[in-house]
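Researcher: Following up on the earlier apo prediction. This time include the ligand. It's zinc ion, with the SMILES given after the sequence.
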Amino acid sequence: MSMNLNTQAGIKAIQLEKLQAGIEELQSSNLFYKSRLHEVNSWNDFYDLPFLTKAELVEDQQRTQPFGTNLTYPLGDYVRLHQTSGSSGGRPLRWLDTGKSWLWWTGLWANHIYKGAGITSEDRIFFAFSFGPFVGFWSAYAGAERLGAMVIPGGSMGSEQRVLAIKELEPTVLCSTPTYALRLAEVGAQMGIDLSKSSIKKTLHAGEPGASIPSTKRAIETAFGASVYDHTGMTELGPTGFTCSAGDGVHFIESEFIFEVIPIGADPDPRSTQSEGTGELVVTNLGRFCSPLIRYRTGDLVELSRNPCSCGSLFVKAVGGIQGRVDDMFTVRGINLYPTQVEEVLMRYSEIVNFQIRHEKIRHMDEVSLLLETRDGTDKVVEKVVLDLRHSFGVRIDCKCVPSGTLPRNEMKAKRVVHVQS
Ligand SMILES: [Zn+2]
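Model: Understood. Below is the ligand-bound prediction.
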């Protein structure tokens, strides 16, 4: 296979080549895809293929338990099971990998995600994860092993133990969600351990958009005295993107995936997706044909840019990373807002340690208010925040302080928006 990643045309040729080979295999032996696909010999053929939604996958796994029918090989060929967190409601999706597709995962970590952050075999990486069935934990860990770094599992430890482990074992890199990194720093402060003076030089995050939200990124940088990197991926898709030295977004790995956008507000038409611009991200993976996704609607909101990047990468960039979920948008007095925009304002305040957006429909109108946990437990900052929000969005959003520890916080994914039934 020709590997010319130095031009857009070269990347597109590689994508089509991988796709053709994969689809041929799916047509012969993948029950789920047999009826959905046709032969693909050109990009036009590709754009004639249907979208795939998560609902279809969930339905398939419910109908054919326990793994569904999106399997290209006999079950005996699969070596790993992972599942989604189920945090977006409903049953978790189960996903199987073969030895070959797992090598693809770990290769993407070693050759793109860690590499993009300048993390090398000399690094010592601490994983503040529980190591449950969520693939992010294991792929990050196995990718670091493959890189030749020293891996330190932080599973089944409380936050205090993790702070102590960082102090004693002197890791140079911390992997966690953005929210949990801030939580660790807070616990450290309570223990009299200042993590900004720790051995951590880099932090690498996923699970939430935070590491690409400027104010959250700065808060983590300050808390750890470290450079902060984002990473994107999905259990059912694979690891899709990484932050480069430019630090203003996430490059999507186009040698291993095809990325498209359904423009916001447009009817989702498979024939009129775009390769840049703002909208819902649609992804096809090209290295996991044992359990592949073709034109998968991720529900993630992105702004794809093909402007040249200072790091020299030709891969498309999601400016500001994943900006949120397309269906997380709410409307306050005619203004469309995403939770990430609210987070960007709130995290400018070092006084605020945690927050939650409460969204309620009252007589068909969206009503939104914010619950804030402050460092000192007082509401001194509230007035300033309300003004700042109003200045940023042109609408008044009510804020209320709640006692420290009221809002849920975990190492998986912060639930930023609560939809209240009234
Ligand atoms: Zn770049």
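Model: The mean pLDDT is 92.
Researcher: Noted. I'll compare it with the apo version next.
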